[in-house]
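User: I'm preparing a small set of examples for a lab meeting where we compare how different chains pack in three dimensions. I only have the primary sequence for this one, and I'd like the structure in C-alpha cell form so I can line it up with the others. Please keep the answer compact; I'll paste it straight into my notes.
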Amino acid sequence: MQEHLPTDLKWMTVTLGSLIAIALAWAAWQTIFFHEDGKDAKGGVEGMSEIQLMFNIVKSVVGEGMLSLPAGIAGGTGLLAGSLMTVFFAALMGYTFSLMGRVCHVTGERSHKDCCAKVADPWLAQSMAVVLFVKTIFTCLAFAIVISESFARILRFCGVQGIMATSQAALLLMTFFVLIPLCMQKQLRILSYTSMIGCLGQVWVVFTMQIRYMDGSYIPGGQFYSTLRTQDQPNFTAGVIYWKTTVASFVLLGSLSTAFIAHYNAPKFYSQLQDASPEKFRKVVIGAFSFAMVIYLWIMAVGYLTFGTAAEGLILNNYSEKDMLMTTARFAISFAVVFAFPLGFTGLRDSMMSTFELGQEHFRSVTFGLLSVIICGACSFHDLGLANSLGGAVLGAMITLIFPAVLLFYAGRQSDSDSSEFGNFEPTWAAAAVALAGVVLLVFGSIIVLMKKFFPEALHLPQ
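Assistant: Understood. Below is the C-alpha cell output for the 463-residue chain.
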C-alpha cells in the first residue's frame, strides 16, 4: 500500500488559503467602494450592511476553539473524512442559523423568547430564554479565562513581573480599557469593525502555520525541530491518513457540533441588518458560514500535516517558543478572543434581559453587573472542568438544532404565517430531521464528554 506523505497535500492547503485571501479581498473591495449606511424602517436606527454583518457572524462563530480541530483529526480521523464532516456541519448549522432569521421575519419578533411566545406556549418560550442565558454565561466565562491566561503570558514575554503579570491583573486591565467600552455598545454595527480586526487576526494565525508547514521548519532537521519537546515533535509513523474513522472520531464530531455556535445572536443579527429580509439574511449567512468552514478546513489540514498524531488540543502549543513568527500568531489569537468577547456578551445580556423581562433603562446596570460576575468568576477559576464541557455539549445542541426546529414547527403551523416562507414540507419533515440531529448530538456529545473524563482509554486518548 502506498504511504501518503505530509507534503502530498500542499496543494490542498494552498487552495484553502487562496480562497480565504480572495474572500478577504472581495470583502475589502465591497467595504471601501460600495459601503452605504442605512436606517431601518422601525426607528431610524442605523443598521449593518451585509459585509458588516458577515464579519460579525464570522467572528461570533470562529473563535479560539478552531485551534483544537487539528487534534480532532490526529485523534483517529482521516483528514478527508474529517473535512467532509466539517462541510456537513457547516451546511447544517448555517441552515438553522438562517432559519432563525426567517422565523423572526414571520413572527415580527427579535428574540428566541418572543418568537416562541408568539407561536407556542409561554413556558416553552421561558425555557428557551433560560437555556440561552445559561449557555452564554459559560461562553463568556470561557472567553474571559482565555483572555486572562493569554495576556498574562504576553505580559511575561514582554518582561513584566510580579503581581502585574498574573492572570487576574491582566484580565482586570483588559476589562477596564477594552472590554467595558466594547460591551457598552448597543448596536452590533459598531462591533463589526473590531470583528474585522479579529477575523484578520485568526487568518494571520493560520497563515503563519501555513508558512511553517511549507518551509519545513518543523520536520526532522528543520530550523525548530530540535527545540521541541519530544511529545510535540511531528509523528507520521503510519503516514497521512485520509479516510480512517474510529470511535475517537466522535471527539471531532463533538468539537464540530459546537464550532459553529452563534445562534444565540441570530435574531439580533437579523433585526440589525439594513433592509432585512429572509433572502438577504440567507445570503449573508451562506457567506459567513462558508468563510468559517474554509478557515476550519485550512487549520485542520495545516496543523495535522505539520505535526501528525502529535498535534495538541491547542495546536499553537506544538510550536517552538523560540519561533518569533508563531509568537506573533499567539498575539493575534489573543486579540481575536478579546474582540469576540463583546459579541458573546451581547448574547448573554440580551438573554438575561429577555429572561427577566428587563427594559432598556436597565442596560447599564445589567452590563456592569454581568461583567462583574464574569470577571470575578474568571479570576477565581481557571478550569471550568466537566460541568462546562457537559453543559456546552447539551446546551449547544439545544440552541443550534433543537430550538430552531421547534420554532420552525410551530411557526409553520400558524394559520396567519407566511406560507410561502416555509411551505408544507419544511415545518414537518425538515423540522423533525433537524430536531432528531439535535437529540443525537446532545446524547453523543454528553457521552463523549463523560468518556473523555472517566474512560479516555475507550477513545484511545491519554489519561
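A couple of notes for your slides: Residues 37-45, 384-388 have pLDDT under 50 and may be disordered. Residues 70 and 300 are 4 Å apart (CA to CA).

User: Perfect, thanks.
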